[in-house]
Amino acid sequence: MPRPSAAAEVTRVDPRTSDVGFVLRTRWGQRLEGRIPVLAGDVRPVGAGLRQVRLRLSARDVEIVGYPRYTQLTRDEAFFDADRHPEVTFVSDPFGPDLVRTGGALVGVLQLRGVERRETFRVEPAPCDRPLLDCAVVAAGVVNRGDYAMDRWSFALGERVQFRLSLRGEEAAAP
């Protein structure tokens, strides 16, 4: 039986080789680097040659690198509120196959703290022929904390959160 074309397969995001990070800036200019080490997701066909990204990130596992106290504060109710909202999700609008090769805008719905908003991430051009499988798909975007009711700590933290995603995939197993 012939194997379906690569465009028709679901590609799972490999959590071991993928990375989701973010940067916060304090009002004093300090740069705080965060990461979300627990993630899951896939890229799937949605018809007409289009694909869709679906990501789930664990808010309970968010960490601020090198700062255990800040890590706890980011998980608490004033920021990610991980006890009430344990996951951050992103579901992209359908996109064509050229987006991950040549780069461009990836638009979709980000759900954070129970608030859903449309956001845009910029995908970088891929340095390989099979992005996600042979090289990472890298995207970045800026989210405003106030849009997601993360407005506490405004005296200490800047409004913007810069996200950077580096996603690798796992090839579908042969049937």
From TrEMBL:
The domain of life is: Bacteria
Q: Where is the Lipid/polyisoprenoid-binding YceI-like domain?
A: 10-170
Pfam families on file: YceI (PF04264)
The record, for PANTHER family, names: PROTEIN YCEI
The protein here is known as Polyisoprenoid-binding protein
